[in-house]
Fold each of these.
Amino acid sequence: MKLFDVYPLLPLSIEKAMGSRLWDDKGEEYLDFYGGHAVISIGHSHSAYVQAIKSQLEKIGFYSNAVINPLQEKLAEKLGKLSGYGDYSLFLVNSGAEANENAFKTASFLSGKKKFISFRNSFHGRTSASVAATDDPSIIAPVNVSENFVFCPFNDIETFETLFYRNKEDLAGVITEGIQGIGGIHIPSKDFIKRIEQLCRELGVFFICDEIQSGYGRTGKFFAHQYFEVRPDIITVAKGMGNGFPIGGVLFSSHIEARKKMLGTTFGGNHLACSAALAVLEVMERENLIVRSYEKGQYLLDSLTKFRKIKEIRGRGLMIALDFDFSASGVSRLLREKYKILVDSAKNSHTIRLLPPLGITEEEIDYFLISLSHILGERSPFAE
């Protein structure tokens, strides 16, 4: 049997990883400014993380959600404390797409309605409703096409108001990313996201915030939307939550009441996943990674402003996009082949995304900056 060939692959086979470093099957060392789609939060193979999973596996790796799993309760309590959402409740799943599916389903169940507003340039996943809410026709099969999702230009308050009132009779929710990820690190204006919250509150529509990529300290706050002083009804998380172990979650405001059998999952919140997620939160707290993400991100952003050939820089914390006047693929390739640095792409071919582990060091950032200056033919950002 062969693999179903759907992934455009880099010519790399990674065999080992530690911190912000990767090693391929030839022994070549790489600096990870990609984090496997922003998944690696506390760093590759962190000793506390590895030990937590090993220790749990020696006890029990899995049992179904038909029995009590105290690790789930411990995880919910820890997540509530560290995120500032202790009054919310948590439903555990396996991925970001699954988290969004359950957010849509809950909003529809409780409202009795079926329409949602999503935004241009968004990405919410590749399953049923999640892909229907994603602004990328190339990944939407005919079975996923749905009139239940209405798309609005991002950061366009006037059009949003028009679409909101036009669909209000059948509107279950509005979903937006805390900061758009695959779309190219586009940040909502405070007025825009607060207007979403205001209209949703006024008419009893569920405000859903997708923090799958922008959450878990990635932006220098636990959730990106916390920069804008809003509190969504529903928050979805995944990626950095498990540092590579598959886990996702849906956070529900206290006014949202659970009903037996309303949601369900076989593998979601299993013992190993909870152990991984608990280790992530403990390391984040102990090593002050949210503050470090903000500080290192600010250092990186400030340094990048010295590059004349970068058309635009966007980002918060360690979630950063660089736009060029030309295709960014050549820059990415040279970073990988000549300087052994991995970076991420975006929907726009002129964009590079930087999503390193939250514990990236200043020395590693400096190496990236010097490498980029050589590729762009720029003066070193550290030159006097």
Amino acid sequence: MSPLVSSKNIAGKTFKQKGDIFKAKNSYKEAISSYLNALLSDRNNAEIYFSLGVCYKNQGKLDKAIENLEKAVLLENENYEYFYELGLCHLKEEVPCKAIKCFIQAIQLEPENPEIIYHLGLAHEQCGEPDMAMMIYQKLIENSPSYLGAYLRKSYLLSKMGLYSQALNLYLNALKINPKYTKVYSEIGMCFDKLGKANEAKRYYRKFLSAEPDDEKATKIMHRIENLRKLTPRKEKTNSVNLSIV
């Protein structure tokens, strides 16, 4: 190896290391500058293209992010993170079919990663395939029972379908998994509201307002509580709500 080539390699590694430090500090502009300098010394380094792609993604420059992540994948197709980050970019661009392909490739390399499986579900939602998304979330609940996002997304889809009793079960399970996730109080209250359980609805709405007073939904929920108060007292629906644990 000639002294010139050796010097270039050393310079490339130095710029990459600087880029990694900046990226860790979320200083993406500086990180990008360092990675571009590193590429001058090494045009075939998949890690540099990957890191560039992640930095561009975090800056919201999705075209450049995808361009660099695709180069990383071409150079090294055995790293699940490359496909996963590329899928996230396509998801942000609202191109779910491409995102699905990337997530599937990532899952083939890293089959037990719940985060990838969850985003595959989101991509199917974006693709207009809620049934497929719900199936993915259910599998995720079964295989990774502590993964909160699967409960929340499946509950959301069930609510959209008017299946409030089933959604309520899952929201309550989500709260058992993470009692500190107080934002779910509003969704629990909404399910009780839709099921005609006014007292339970008001209780959870109040719990939400107490925990999340500055949330953007707070004013709307305050109005809903007031409306429930003004309603002529009537016997709540007697339909039992199955609150079994999934």
Amino acid sequence: MAISSIAILGGDLRQCYCAEYLLSLGWQATCFHTLDFPYHGKIRLAKSLAEALANAKVVLAPTPLSKDNALLYQAGSQHPSCPLAEIWDSMSPGQILAVHSIREQTARLLAEKNCPVFQFSQSETFTAGNSYLTAEGLLSEIIRLTPFSLASANILLLGYGRCGSAIGNLLHPLCRTAYVVEWDLSRRAQAEKNGLTPVAAADFPKALPPCSLVINTIPAPVLEPGQLQRVPGSCHIFDIASAPFGFPADTAEKYLLPYFRIPGIPGRFAPADAGQLIGKTIERISDYGL
């Protein structure tokens, strides 16, 4: 199936660089409510949602899709809000929605309209590349926000999935010790094979006091309040998980710990590479069988 036209909606600089990349391949790209950007002259900037969707075979939603599950995510505030429901209502049968991830209810709604959904978070190529960009951006933030050298740091990594393993593999050679909390036995074994030290809940009393860094990749609480109190006051916590995150928003005030929520790292630190990665993933839509 030849796909050569795309409507790119909202988002951050990743959307802009994705448009530039697909244009370089000969795609017709139309942007709507994206950031102000020095676009190539052949990229159309639609004045309305209807204009953006007209003749588009693929509709690219931003990452994240929304901050409140109601309105399209749009970095900055130069454009009016765009309700997600309006987008779903405006899509035509046969149009493909390309999105990082989507709620099952919305996927069913689009299926009823005969609008296939391609979730690129399910692409191995995308997740591998995106995870490395996440790890690289996190390293930049850790260096910027901590007052100590990584060579002297003991790290506790929560989760060893795709992002966790990329982070662990990047930071482990730089740190004194890298502990990892992972309940999946195969991932736990892989972490140990890669040189990290797996810890169980029973090990927290020993592992937490010497920690310089806690890095969370799990969108759920892992450390209980009593365990957080064992963390030294100089320990910096970096939470890169998606909502609902791994720690409450008042962690810094409640536990007197430096706490940083840093979602969407690829879009902030490597938007050009992250946008091209999305574009390359969309190229493979026809291979996906849609």
